[in-house]
Amino acid sequence: MAIIVGYVPTPEGVAALESAIDEAQRRHQRLVVVNSSRGESLVDKRFASGTEWQSVEERLTASGVDHELTQLVESKDAADQILKLASELNAELIVIGLRRRTPVGKLLLGSQAQTILLEAECPVLAVKSS
Amino acid sequence: MDALTELLNGFVTAAHPTNLLYAFVGVLLGTAIGVLPGIGPAMAIALLLPLTYSLEPTQAFIMFAGIYYGGMYGGSTTSILLNTPGESASVVTAIEGNKMARKGRAAAALATAAIGSFIAGTIGTLCLALLAPAIVQLAVKMGAPDYFAVMVLAFVAVTTVLGSSKVRGVAALAIGLLIGLIGIDPTSGQQRLTLGLPELADGIDVVVVAVGLFAVGEALWIAAHLRRTPADIITVGAARMSREDWRRSWKPWLRGTAIGFPFGAIPAGGAEIPTFLSYVTEKKLSKHPEEFGHGAIEGVAGPEATNNASAAGGLVPLLTLGIPTTATAAVMLGAFQSYGIQPGPRLLETQPELVWGLVASLFIGNAILLALNLPLAPIWAKLLRIPRPYLYAGILFFASIGAYAANLSTFDLWLLLLLGALGFAMRRFGLPVVPAIIGIILGPVAEEQLRRALQISDGQLSGLYDTWFSKTVYFVILLVLVVPPVVNSVRKRRKPTDRELQPSERAGD
Predict the structure, then answer these.
(1) Cβ-defined contact of A40 to B384 (cutoff 8 Å)
(2) From CA B10, how far away is CA B353, in angstroms rounded?
(3) Does B506 map to a domain?
(4) Which residues of A touch B228 (CB under 8 A)?
(5) Could you tell me whether strands A2-6 and B191-192 are parallel, antiparallel, or unpaired per DSSP bridges?
(6) How far apart are CA B480 and CA B496, in angstroms?
(7) How many CB atoms lie within 10 A of CB B4?
(8) DSSP-derived 3-state class of residue B183
(9) pLDDT given at position B502
(10) In a domain, B509, yes or no
(11) Cα B247 to chain center, whole Å?
């Protein structure tokens, strides 16, 4: 059993991480932080850089939660990676950040959050940045 | 002062609103292409060539020249911000440029690269305008054996100087020469290497070859190595320099220009060697040698000026002798041929409007580039977020349209795929593409000169080297073959060469 959080280096991602830490402390569960890229473009701002990833690690260590960090470059979408990991680890909860999208933007580009919300087998906690 | 009058006439041509627009489109495209690693100006010109058949040659070449210069600018942006050179000419820039950016001096590095490129490009273009008529005076006296000797020099230089292995360079050149032989022999009218296919009788279209080797080959290569961990990019605002940066940059700019222009003008395989030379020179002359390796501004200013000056220098042999020194110049030569124009000493007489319009538009393009690059560097960096599948799907689409449009035959599309597979195989086995493309385009021209020289001398081999000019050139070839290995072995004894400094093949100049 574990809690999985999808992390991106944005305000939403940070909000998701904070909520996930709260939940992990409350439930006394292991927290798995996932950050992924499809590795298709040379620069992906949603892929945490070395220093950003280090600060996540520091934040987790400071909180005292049992944690694990995974950074992946695979052909799958972030949503599919999180869902796969959730079923592998038999996750108790998935935490994701939501950003504001226009209906048209969502229609054109799809939504990773929507895929997770609809397809996850466990409860999903969706967090917005304040 | 004749050249200056002609140049002023050229400005009249270049300042025509349509031509200005094409210059603008050219530099815009060129910069974008320069920023993206793996896509070079040679590929871009080859892709655009079929689309420009409906244009006047002058307009098409103004655009191509913009792409050529723009590519040299754009390469520095990725070198500095990402440590991934966009072009082979910017490999050296990455050494100091990226270190500067990591220390928070990205804006100064971008500014010194852009302003240095502008100054070097302007001085280089001025030298081109002043030198070209003088070289033409010399060139009209050159006979077939002299031309052949210079072309042999170009072949030797491009194979031995570029890349890590001479054997691979020679193999790539041989592939190019072989493909160049396909078609009807111009002297005897016999079919060669056509395999009995009537479609091959006219030879393979330059567009199909260049697009196949560069665009399709690169696309297949990227498709085979698609996933890779995204790199850290350094965010930066508009490029600007402090007074101190100016003081430290102006001398390297001028020295870079002085190194780059002559190296561009001789067939020495493009900008890799002069940029490296400029870097070494700046390191020696710097008052802050301790800063080298930790982000010295001189190490960005010098090489960036050098690569633009060498781009200007590369146009000298192309416009006066019809001999390309880089892949981009080779594709431009192919473009001239497909317009039915043979670059050479007579080009200045027969097409003065084209040549001087082109030179004048280089000045204008340079100024546009400076205006575009100082404030817009952060926007160019955004191009790197384009997912490669979309980018290369678009390139393949343009490649196929271009190959089909060249002769409106499906045969060319199959040929394109075949050449794309060849381009992929060459990348896979580490064969440089540049010698191949120069072999394909320059090979038939060299053969014509060789045959003519032998006809004149009645089949005597001595006819190839009995002029003082050809003798000098063959002596230079000997030097090119002998000196670098000797220098290398001496340098190796002193210290192992830095692997980073090996010019990358694949960026394809």
Answers:
(1) no
(2) 6
(3) no
(4) 39, 73
(5) unpaired
(6) 22
(7) 11
(8) strand
(9) 44
(10) no
(11) 31
Residue for token digits 């692997």? B499
A30-37 β-sheet, strand order: A67-73, A30-37, A2-6, A93-98, A124-128
ipTM for the predicted complex comes to 0.74
Which of B222, B385, B390, B392 is the mutation pick for testing A, counting most A CBs within 10 A?
B385
Query: Is position B507 within any domain?
Result: no
Distance in Å, alpha carbon of A72 to nearest chain B alpha carbon? 8
Question: Which CATH code for domain A6-128?
Answer: 3.40.50.620
Measured CA to CA, the distance from residue B196 to residue A26 in angstroms comes to 80
What range does the domain containing B154 cover? 2-501
Contact at CB, A74 and B227, closer than 8 angstroms: yes
pLDDT of amino acid B327: 85
pLDDT for the residue numbered B507: 41
- What are the pLDDT digits (tens) for B292-320? 888 889 889 999 999 899 989 989 989 88
- Which regions in chain B score pLDDT beneath 50? 497-509
- List chain B residues with CB under 8 Å of A75: 226-227
Task: Specify the pLDDT at position B89.
Answer: 78
- Helix-, strand-, coil-residue percentages of chain A, each rounded to 5: 45, 25, 30
Q: Does B230 sit within 8 Å of A42, measured CB to CB?
A: yes
The burial of B194, by beta-carbon neighbours within 10 Å (0-12 exposed, 13-18 middle, 19 or more buried), is given as: middle
Rounded to a whole number, what is the distance in Å from the CA of A49 to chain B's nearest CA? 6
Which residue from B315, B324, B269 is spatially nearest to B158, judged by alpha carbons?
A: B269
Is this structure's pTM higher than 0.90? Answer: no
Q: Which two tokens mark B217?
A: 């080959």
Chain B residue numbers with beta carbons less than 8 Å from the beta carbon of A39 are 226-230
**Rounded to 5 degrees, what angle do the CA atoms B94, B95, B98 make?**
60
Q: How many domains does chain B have?
A: 1
Question: Would you state the pLDDT for residue B268?
Answer: 64
**Mutation site for B-interface testing, chosen from A43, A47, A75, A76 by largest number of B Cβ within 10 Å:** A43
Distance CA B44, CA B219 (A): 13
On chain B, the residues whose CB falls within 8 A of the CB of A54 are none
Residue ranges per domain, chain A? 6-128
